[in-house]
Write a structure and sequence with these properties.
The structure holds 4 protein chains of 4 kinds. Chain B is of the alpha/beta class. Chain B is built from 10 helices and 12 strands. In chain B, the strands form 2 sheets. A 6-stranded parallel beta sheet of chain B has the order 2-1-3-4-5-11, sandwiched between helices. In chain B, strands 7-6-8-9-10-12 form a 6-stranded mixed beta sheet, sandwiched between helices. In chain B, strand 6 (144-149), helix 6 and strand 7 (175-180) form a beta-alpha-beta unit. By secondary structure, chain D is mainly α. Chain D contains 16 helices and no strands. The longest helix of chain D has 38 residues, at 325-362. Mean pLDDT of chain D is 88; it is low at 359-377. The chains are: A mainly alpha, B alpha/beta, C alpha/beta, D mainly alpha. Chains in contact: A-B, A-C, A-D, B-D, C-D. Chains A and D meet through helix 4, helix 10 and helix 12 of A and helix 6, helix 13 and helix 15 of D. The complex binds adenosine-5'-triphosphate (2 copies) and magnesium ion (2 copies).
């Protein structure tokens, strides 16, 4: 049984599943990376995802347009981000806790809207798979990497893009400075509030897209609380990736693949209690971090509201 | 105008009042909805909200909150307070003695704690599971079937065990792979579990609890067949859903209500079965089930009803 | 508008700037009380005052970091509102802050480029920035690596980054808040060259320093602040160091503390061929050996970044010693925990006191017991003794003249100099067996400097072994019994007080070994 | 007089913010065609309307307070413990095991042992992320989130396997629950309501935590390490050790909350597969309560009651006006956001007061005499 784990079917299955499952994590975690890099901890990701999830689904369901659906998720995410930015930047509220507040708001609101506007679980036709000619025909991996829907491709393109923005642009420089030493950035005329508004709203948008990737690309349904803690895992993955987009990618893939592995462990009938199998991705994520000693520290100003102390 | 009427008349005029506490949302297309739909049906039968009042608390997954709700409903004089979730048992056991005039019901279980005002209800979900299993084994070409479950307990476990028994009885060569994903709400993981089953060769899938909506979509994508339970899930994927085991709690509820109206407040356990109509197999009219298969399903149902088929659970 | 209105950099000149009736209140403090101050193009105007007099506050108001409660700012005679650094930067005002405004996780070039438009639009142009930095560094004689991360730099090097940042922006009016506090005499000379050049070009400079000789040397006018009020403004040509001191403090100040005679005791602290790494991963110390005796002050002269920090940290257990031994009173303390080492009554006054020496969000009283909180009378059986802590704090506040509204004030709300005093008071007052003092008077006003020096000498006279790490040669020469010169992680030489001259030390600090000195590096 | 009013305002600020959030909620109620007055009357009634409902509020507040106390410790030590849920579960599991294993022992002894077991269980579950952080640089937000998930699966496994109620093991339904604790092991009830001795324990512990944080060396060091690990290390404090201690204690209080829920409220453990089914999200909401209470153990008492009242009252509101539970969640979210946002006014007022006081102090103290005094020395 154990040896079956190493068959090509299983390995390809794990890889493919990992690639897919990682998609929502990537969007949300990259968004969170931006806000954390600028010194803002957003624990409301899950709520933003749920609202994005619903908005995308509902608009797609009613208009039949996937792109309008995606746009709706973006708009809703941006709005949530705007609110979060106002509360944490202007009102200087505790970030962690206001994030929990926004999480609860999103959790409840998405459900409430779902009940009022939809009433019951429905399905939509999600983003179709895009076969990349040539590449998708490569045996084995072609199917995995080059036969996905557009939001999956988008998630992976986001990784180098995020790296580029953070490390090669003036905006990225400002973001990093604001997250490490907002006083210094401020003293050079960098508008700390504006930078944080930008990253928080961007985080909201990407969380919204993460939600959309579930409801109109990967699962094509909406159900209350369907993210089921995914947003919190996404936040954790930012720490796993040590605020580096590629690290976040690694974490998302690791977590998703181990999750897929545990499904296979159960399917192959390997005699491990199902609950113990379900623990695997969580345990392994921690163990990997223990094994790879990293000295990277969080952005110094993370969770600290900025204020000129007069 | 009830105040001026004679007492008997007033009693007849008074609506029957039911309160129900449910662990998930009333529209979950699964366990909670099955109860809510049944109550609505009875309401219609009894003449609308004036005659049959329903109040509910949904998403009461916190046992402690549910207990508070149950106590509150009881103190407000509802005729029947239903704790629709086996986790509410201990709360009911504690509360019921304080409200001897109120009738309580809880499910799914057969335990009434020997209390005169507690009804218990359960579903022999292994029965519908068995029927689904028999059909699944017949329809599977790849001889591999996948099951997606939440956690390995209660109603879910019962259904899955029944399903496996049905498959084994029909074709022992068919493999049933089971995945418990450890959650009632993780739609994404449920769908991934379905994909895993499909990769492992399954061409027929089933699953239980509210998160399986994700799995149904994956089955549809892969053109694998789906068997539903708890509610009728046909609408989610009309092309691939073959049959659903649907709970009709109204069967038990009707009996409870008439007992209560007759002054008997509890002490009885109801079991929803294929025989008593508490469970019904609903087939998807749009799915072209071969006559042979349909006949096999019907004979299996009949066999379970008349007792010629016994389901042995592990 | 004529040509002469422009600076060589193309920046518009600021002919005059005037601050009128500036008032600023902080919780518990009136930091500026109707202050008047002005500066003109082509002059260096010194702002002088004791620690907490309100100098930095006034400058932060000018730079747009603080908003005044009252008062106006006139630029070239026109009233202007400066509500943020963006405003002041746009008006041509630059500032070098007393506490560095650097992002440690960014490189030097990134710190300089931050907030500036890039020649490549949205993309950074760090290579160009680096080149320009190197150009500026060459012109002004500053040694700097644009690609180094700021966290890897010594304090002195960080100060250079601050200067580069301001030079890079070509400010017409430049505020320098205690820029020389962390510079070596050579670096100060270099800075003055730069400043004179800027003045000639038509810049206006505001210069804050506690070193009066610098004020006399570089400034045209000097304004003295005391307790948030302007005492007066005078041309420096008309004053002397001593007169300034008296004017500022309101009493006679002695510059050379009385050392008494040297009574050497037994060897207290001894290093034997100690080696360790640096934060940059390069060797930090490359085999350092020396003894310090009871009753002596051993000065460590050297340009910052030559292993001073590594030396201090390996002695105190904060950095892993990779080979060699450290002995305190004959006992091997190599790589013991910092707590255990300091428990043996080694006191340490770290260089970066804001970061390493105190806790900004603790009260003054809480900071005063940071080292000794586990001892009586501050605590007993695991419980704190609030009364003991309070009276200790009150005593030190008085003794060291810490200017604070109360012992319950958060340390972060004190002025730069007063924050230093907390650390000094705490470390010196424990009557340690040995003291390791890194830049102990940096940023202190003359009164406080005098007091700290007296304290160090008193500790020495009481029999403590004192190690004094300082970039201030005057201080080293004034206090030390022997002077070790540290260069690239090695002790170049240890010379006695009598044999030491600034010239000789300067050569050693530059890595040139003189023939007649006795080599101690084994 | 003025300052007393100010203090009152500060103390009432969360309440005012809560009212503002509910005012926003009114819009939603109207959209749902629900009479807001009726709805909020029900909310009030559910939380404070009778001795019984107030008792329910306190019952709800008890685990919140216990978790909040732990949060006060860890957040003061600058470790963000999001693992309250898992820590509650593990504490409860250990405590339940004690009560189910030693059935012959006297009640007081078992209760005491169980509470200690809960404390220890939670401490272990909090200590692990502590050690991971201090010695392996594993961020605690990540590890505590992961440890929550692990604890849930552990609970599911134990309650459907080794620890399952023997009666359920016989039945086909196999409800994942432990056997019920015998009556002798139940925490004493205060008054004829569900209010139990756990509430008293929590209040006493609030005082203990206050003393711990501000009157002991441990507390001093935890706070020092939290504020500035560099300076703490330079001062000879073993930074790693106090990081672990902060998380461990934080977890221990959450574990105690779990034990108290079992011994005071449920008398058994039962799972619905999720964490909140057992914890009622107290491991999360406790963070909110602690921050409402300014990370101050004593202020956490009213903060927990406020939040508990809201949760209990909202459930009542759902029952009375039959709004979807989702609306309740939305309201909770709004209240949390409004309350944290309101903090800024407290800070502003504080600063203004201090500034005013400072001026008074500074004004009548002209510098001249002082200088003369100095000059005369
Ligand atoms: N942000 C602040 N909050 C509260 N009080 C402050 C703040 N900044 C400065 N103060 C107070 O204002 C007074 C003046 O401080 P300032 O920093 O201007 O002094 P300074 O003259 O620069 O002293 P030093 O020479 O020590 O740097 C001090 O008493 C200080 O405690
Ligand atoms: N300056 C710092 N900033 C942030 N975290 C720090 C700092 N110094 C230490 N730590 C944390 O503490 C951990 C170990 O620190 P350190 O070795 O100094 O502790 P210690 O005092 O030796 O304690 P112990 O003897 O118990 O190991 C580091 O891995 C890091 O997580
Ligand atoms: Mg200053
Ligand atoms: Mg150590």
């Amino acid at each position: 049984m154990i040896t079956e784990l190493f068959s090509t079917t299983v390995l390809i299955g794990i890889l493919a599943s990992g690639i897919r499952l990682a998609t929502p994590y990537l969007y949300a975690a990259i968004g969170e990376t931006f806000s954390q890099k600028s010194g803002v901890l957003n624990l409301g990701v899950e709520g933003q995802m749920l609202l994005g999830c619903f908005a995308a689904f509902y608009v797609t369901f009613t208009t039949g347009s996937l792109w309008l659906g995606l746009l709706a998720a973006i708009a809703v995410g941006a709005l949530m981000g705007l609110a979060m930015a106002f509360v944490t930047v202007n009102l200087r509220a505790q970030q962690g806790i206001s994030g929990i507040g926004f999480y609860l708001f999103g959790l409840g609101m998405s459900d409430l809207l779902f009940q009022r506007l939809m009433g019951t679980v429905e399905t939509v036709q999600g983003f179709p798979k895009i076969y990349i000619p040539g590449l998708s025909e490569i045996p084995g991996i072609g199917e995995i990497f080059f036969n996905q829907n557009i939001l999956v491709y988008g998630a992976y393109l986001l990784v180098p893009l995020a790296w580029f923005v953070l490390n090669k642009t003036t905006l990225g420089l400002k973001i990093r400075a604001v997250g490490e030493n907002p006083d210094a950035a401020d003293s050079l005329g960098v508008n700390v509030a504006r930078v944080r508004y930008f990253t928080i709203i961007l985080g909201g948008i990407l969380s919204g897209v993460a939600g959309a990737s579930l409801s109109i690309a990967l699962l094509n349904v909406f159900q209350q609380n369907m993210t089921s803690g995914l947003g919190f895992i996404a936040v954790a993955l930012v720490y796993f990736g040590a605020w580096h987009p590629v690290g976040v990618l690694g974490g998302a893939l690791l977590f998703s693949m181990v999750n897929s592995l545990q499904l296979w462990v159960q399917v192959l009938g390997i005699p491990i209690p199902s609950d113990i199998a379900v623990m695997m991705p969580y345990v392994l994520t921690i163990l990997v971090l223990v094994a790879t000693v990293s000295r990277v520290r969080a952005p110094s100003a993370l969770t600290k509201p900025f204020e000129r102390d007069e | 105008g009830g105040s001026t009427a004679a007492p008997e008349e007033a009693a007849a005029m008074e609506p029957f009042r039911v309160a129900v506490v449910m662990p998930s949302a009333i529209n979950d297309l699964a366990f909670s909805q099955s109860m809510y739909d049944a109550l609505l049906l009875i309401q219609e039968e009894m003449g609308g909200p004036e005659m049959f009042e329903i109040v509910y608390s949904e998403n009461m997954f916190v046992v402690d909150d549910a207990a508070a709700a149950i106590r509150d409903y009881a103190s407000q004089g509802y005729d029947l307070v239903i704790g629709h979730g086996s986790q509410y048992g201990s709360s009911l056991q504690e509360i019921a003695p304080d409200f001897p005039e109120t009738s309580f019901a809880w499910g799914t279980t057969s335990e009434t704690f020997g209390q005169p005002n507690i009804f218990a209800y359960s579903a022999s979900s292994q029965q519908g599971g068995y029927v689904n299993g028999v059909l699944a084994a017949t329809l599977s070409q790849s001889a591999t079937i996948g099951v997606v479950g939440p956690i390995e307990v209660g109603d879910a476990k019962l259904y899955v065990d029944g399903f496996k028994a049905g498959v084994a009885a029909t074709n022992p060569a068919v493999t049933v792979n089971v995945n418990y994903i450890g959650s009632f709400s993780d739609v994404a993981l449920a769908s991934e579990a379905a994909t895993t089953h499909i990769s492992a060769g399954a061409d027929v899938l089933t699953g239980t609890a509210q998160m399986v909506v994700g799995a149904i979509g994956k089955a549809e994508e892969a053109n694998a067949l789906w068997f539903g339970t708890q509610s009728n899930q046909t609408s989610l994927a009309p092309s691939i859903v073959v049959a659903n085991q649907v709970y009709h709690w109204e069967v038990a509820l009707r009996e409870m209500i008439s007992m209560i109206q007759a002054g008997e407040l509890g002490g009885k356990a109801f079991d929803a079965t294929l025989a008593n109509g508490g469970e019904v197999m609903e087939f998807n009219p749009d799915y072209a089930l071969s006559d042979d298969a349909k006949a096999l399903a019907d004979s299996t149902i009949q066999g379970i009803i008349d007792g010629s088929i016994t389901i042995t659970l592990p | 508008m004529t040509e002469s209105n422009l600076l060589p950099s193309g920046q518009k000149r600021i002919d005059s700037l005037e601050m009128r009736g500036i008032t600023k209140r902080f919780p518990g403090v009136l930091a500026s009380d109707h202050v008047n101050f002005d500066v003109k193009s082509g002059e260096v105007h010194a702002l002088l005052g004791e620690n907490g007099a309100g100098k930095s506050t006034l400058m932060k108001i000018l730079y747009g970091l603080y908003h005044p409660d009252e008062g106006t700012v006139l630029l070239n005679g026109e009233p202007v509102t400066i509500s943020s650094p963006t405003d002041s930067i746009n008006l041509g005002i630059g500032m070098i802050h007393q506490h560095f405004m650097l992002v440690p996780t960014l490189t030097v070039a990134e710190n300089v480029a931050l907030g500036l438009p890039s020649s490549r639009g949205a993309l950074t142009d760090l290579d160009k920035v680096s080149n320009r930095i190197l150009e500026l560094a060459k012109i002004y004689g500053l040694k700097i690596d644009p690609d180094a991360y700021v966290w890897q730099l010594s304090v002195g090097q960080q100060q250079r980054v601050e200067i580069i940042k301001a030079l890079y922006r070509g400010a017409a009016l430049l505020i320098l808040d205690e820029p020389t506090a962390v510079l070596t005499p050579q670096e100060v000379d270099e800075l003055f060259v730069i400043m004179r050049q800027m003045v000639r070009d038509g810049h206006a400079l505001i210069f804050i320093s506690h070193k009066l000789h610098e004020v006399v040397e570089i400034c045209n006018r000097v304004t003295v602040l005391r307790n948030g009020r302007t005492i007066g403004t005078r041309p420096t040509a008309e004053t002397t160091k001593q007169a300034l001191a008296n004017w500022m403090v309101g009493r006679e100040v002695g510059f050379a503390p009385d050392r008494g005679e040297t009574k050497l005791g037994e060897v207290r602290l001894s290093l034997d061929n100690v080696q360790c790494g640096s934060d940059r991963g390069t060797p930090g110390l490359r085999g350092v050996s020396f003894d310090v005796c009871s009753g002596e002050i051993l000065g460590f002269a050297g340009v910052s970044g030559n292993g001073q920090r590594e030396l201090a940290e390996s002695i105190t257990g904060l950095r892993k010693v990779t080979s060699g031994k450290v002995y305190l009173e004959g006992q091997d303390i190599t790589n013991m925990s910092p707590g255990d080492i300091m428990e043996r009554m080694l006191s340490y006054i770290p260089e970066e006191r804001m970061r390493d020496g105190m806790i900004k969000d603790f009260t003054v009283a809480e900071n005063m017991i940071l080292r000794e909180h586990q001892k009586q009378p501050y605590s007993k059986n695991g419980f704190l003794n609030l009364r003991g802590i309070a009276s200790h704090a009150d005593e030190l506040i008085q003794k060291f003249r810490v200017k604070t509204p109360s012992r319950e004030t958060m340390a972060k709300n004190l002025s730069g100099g007063n924050i230093q005093k907390i650390v000094l008071a705490r470390e010196i007052s424990r009557n340690p067996r040995a003291i390791l003092a890194a830049q102990p008077t940096r940023g202190l006003d003359i009164g406080a400097t005098e007091y700290v020096r007296e304290q160090l000498i008193e500790q020495r006279n009481k029999g403590a072994a004192v190690m004094l790490i300082s970039e201030d040669l005057d201080e080293i020469l004034a206090l030390s019994d022997r002077i070790a010169v540290i260069y690239e992680g090695q002790i170049m030489d240890i010379i006695t007080r009598e044999n030491a001259t600034p010239e000789k030390l300067g050569l050693l600090m530059a890595g040139v070994r003189s023939e007649d000195a006795t080599p101690v590096v084994k | 007089m003025r300052s007393k009013l100010s203090t009152l305002f500060d103390a009432l600020l969360p309440v005012i913010a809560t009212l503002a959030a509910l005012a926003v909620g009114t819009v939603m109620l109207l959209l749902l065609k629900v009479n807001p007055i009726e709805a909020y009357a029900a909310l009030w009634d559910g939380a404070f309307g009778s001795a019984n409902s107030f008792a329910e509020t306190l019952v709800k507040a008890t685990p919140l307070l216990l978790v909040a106390l732990g949060i006060c410790i860890s957040f003061r030590g600058d470790v963000i413990n999001i693992g309250g849920e898992g820590q509650m579960i593990v504490g409860a599991v250990l405590a339940t095991w004690v009560g189910l294993t030693f059935t012959e022992a006297p009640g007081w002894l078992i209760i005491a042992l169980a509470l200690v077991a809960g404390f220890v269980g939670g401490g272990i579950w909090g200590g692990i992320p502590g050690v991971l952080k201090a010695y392996f640089n594993v961020n605690e937000i990540l590890s505590t989130v992961m440890m929550n998930a692990i604890a849930v699966q552990l609970m599911n496994f134990l309650l459907r396997g080794p620890m399952i109620d023997p009666a359920q093991a016989e039945l086909a339904s196999k409800i994942p629950q432990t056997a019920r604790l015998i009556d002798e092991f139940h925490l004493a009830r205060l008054a004829p309501t569900r209010l139990h001795a756990g509430a008293l324990i929590a209040v006493v512990l609030a005082v203990v935590v206050y003393i711990l944080l501000w009157r002991t060396i441990w507390g001093y060091r935890i706070r020092a390490v939290g504020q500035n690990p560099h300076a703490s290390r330079y001062a000879g404090i073993k930074v790693s050790r106090y990081m672990v201690l902060a998380l461990l204690l934080s977890g221990a209080f959450a574990g105690l909350a779990g034990a108290v829920q079992v011994y005071g409220v449920n008398y058994r453990m039962i799972t619905d597969g999720s964490a909140s089914g057992f914890t009622g999200s107290a491991g999360f909401n406790g963070i909110v309560a602690a921050l409402f209470g300014q990370l101050h153990p004593l202020w956490s008492i009213p903060a927990s009651i406020l939040f508990g009242a809201l949760l209990v009252g909202a459930n009542k509101m759902q029952r009375v006006v039959q709004v979807p539970s989702a609306l309740i969640t939305v309201l909770n979210g709004l209240v949390v956001v409004f309350v944290v946002s309101s903090e800024i006014w407290r800070h502003r007022r504080q600063r203004r007061r201090l500034a005013a006081a400072g001026e008074e102090e500074a004004q009548p103290k002209p510098d001249q005499p002082q200088v003369q005094k100095e000059a005369g020395q």
